[in-house]
Amino acid sequence: MSENKEPHVAKLVYDFTEGNKDLKDLLGGKGANLAEMTNLGLPVPPGFTITTEACKVYLDSGEEPAALRDEVSAHLDALETKMGKKLGQPDNPLLVSVRSGAKFSMPGMMDTVLNIGLSDKSVKGLADQAGDERFAWDSYRRLIQMFGKTVLGVDGDLFEEALEKAKETKKVTVDTELDAADLKKLVTAFKKIVKKEAGRDFPQDPREQMDLAIKAVFDSWNGDRAKLYRRQERIPHDLGTAVNVCSMVFGNLGPDSGTGVAFTRDPASGHQGVYGDYLQNAQGEDVVAGIRNTVPLAELEQIDKKSYDQLMQIMETLENHYKDLCDIEFTIERGQLWMLQTRVGKRTAGAAFRIATQLVDQGLIDEAEALQRVTGAQLAQLMFPRFDEEAKVAQVGRGIAASPGAAVGKAVFDSYTAVKWSRSGEKVILVRRETNPDDLDGMIAAEGILTSRGGKTSHAAVVARGMGKTCVCGAEELEVDTKRRRMTVPGGHVVEEGDVISIDGSSGKVYLGEVPVVPSPVVEYFEGRMHAGADDADELVEAVHRIIGYADRMRRLRVRANADNAEDALRARRFGAQGIGLCRTEHMFLGDRRELVERLILADTEAEREESLKELLPLQKADFVELFKAMDGLPVTVRLLDPPLHEFLPDITELSVRVALAESRQESHENDLRLLQAVHRLHEQNPMLGLRGVRLGLVIPGLFTMQVRAIAEAAAERKAAKGDPRAEIMIPLVGTVQELEIVREEADQVVAEVEAATGTQLKLAIGTMIELPRAALTAGQIAEAAEFFSFGTNDLTQTVWGFSRDDVEASFFTAYLEKGIFGVSPFETIDKDGVGSLVSLAAKAGRETRPDLKLGVCGEHGGDPESVHFFHEVGLDYVSCSPFRIPVARLEAGRAAVQSEGSDHR
What we know:
46% of the residues lie in helices and 17% in strands. With 906 residues, it is an alpha/beta fold.
């Protein structure tokens, strides 16, 4: 890259004393929070942070910024002066860690190297400095292992196999039982692995070690697992990572040293208490990797009360300062406590709701902030079914309840199989001794994760909580043999790959076979039938009730339901719906009415057609009477018939077989033959772009007027019964104002006739769906004949993208998601740049023509959390979604109002 193309970056390196928690864009989450803890006077090892801007220059150009080396050298000199040591000097070496730290937490997805500065010369100085030869050689072997895998790309299994061989030779089971002589031999073996696999010697120059490690961290931003995690979590790909260079403190200096992870509240339940894991004589990677089983943090009080008391005080300080659950990494070096990291901790859905309300009660946050601490996706998780605890299914083990949920699937023992089977439609449970970052794709594919090692702070637990994935960790009774693809449970029973197991992430229980499920207590609450049960369930329901209440008071968007019958309407109302935004009348034409519809389609004369419509009218009217009764006092938007007529006729293959069989047997088949002829007549190459929607009403005389009459008569009957029907008539698939004008003129005439016949004044709003690009582009004209717009974003997405949803989701969407063309399916979350632009344009143009134009959305996006925020921003009046998603939409509408500048927070 030429010199004049390199962007100017003012400052590339910040000392921990220079930053603060609000500089996450520049310093990453880890660096910003290390600076914040330093500012608070907490015991943080000195160090400095290389900014995300430096990373972005490197990733864009392939070269580090020209000024970076000099800035790093200046900060390293200052660090050496502060510590009274020089990096890697033989007699009294300074050692540092090089760790990643993006703006958003990506646990285990990028690289870390500890103990940088150790070499064949400085290892002896470290031994003398610590008075512990074993510790020095253990630290050296860790450096070569991490550096070899992370920086030089050596297969990590080769180091693990050499370590296992050393333990077998010594006849010990854990690495802490290897002495200094054993570890010296292991260092030699590790260096030989590096030489053979990397084609070079392990670097003895400490500055070269540090520089190569910094580059490796930069490169890890674009590693496969990091990119996959960002796609899964919808983290932008252009942020880059900061790099933190921190003076080493050692938890592997003996029994008075150790390392741990702590939470200021339980990340699984939200309950207050002492939560975390501690491991004596270990470095931090040992805890999160889950390779040695930890002890509960509470036991630290007996091991080292001074450090425990200091840690409890720091945890309280951090929670009050951040006003949230904090996740803390710490090391104790010979009785001295050091803080290595803090961040707002990942938590389960249930914990998120409980903690938000707890913090409100403590006066740390207000209701608006509480709404920002939870998400619609978390609420949806809480509405999933749970295991029936009374079911008679064999429990075979119990581990740590790391991430809640009820997961059932076939046991698989590696990520490749999990992905392969999942893509074939199988539900799987990923079973491992412990997971590592390379297992991410399998964790995403699996219904749940089960490990025999690790605790609530292990890699499996942290990542599963972040993804909302069911997880049970540390089920020590289970012997997991990944090579033989099997798991042995207490009693000797063997679970082979492919056997069905069930795991309960709320209790930690593991079962053989499939456990039946029961409704979530949150769903029972919304249904109005919450039973008196466990205190925990009652507490969760209370937290959800309060948060939804906050949202309802603050949101501007109203939330309606997509419902086609009285039963769905009543359920939607229990879930908090403020009306029906989409009643699909085609669903009323199925079942025992199909024969009447067939007669309508087959009618050869006007008289036959009118007779069929006459028979359908009272049935349609009865449907609407029940619907208006269920939604009394709330708006009900009825969409007139939309799908192609062939959908109401038998399958062409089935009909052809019936006709052929009847002819071969010389049986009567006149009706089937007429149906077959009609199917052929109505056949279209692209039926969703053919004779449907408003086009049906224009070419089949009387069809739409029959439906309008049924709506009007039903509304009149409800008014006569002292009801309050608020019907709205929606014309589908309009592409030009002329179509709407013709249908509207006929509808207005029918409504006037019903008003005259019943002596009842009806106020039936008439509007249209905006589901074609042309409708969006000519919305100003269409608004002249429409009192409301409802955006049909399902069809609008299909027509904007040129996708047939039923075909493309099964054929190439997976590849598009994997290649990063989509961050998420445009049918799941609205495509703001394309479809969203049309929605915004149509909303603006429609209201310019008719300022009081009511705007809503009735596609599936109406219940998608991210899409709800978009609809709030563009000024829609309501969203409509399936009954089950109504609470999610209510919550997100409140969150959108809080986030939106100038919200009236009503």
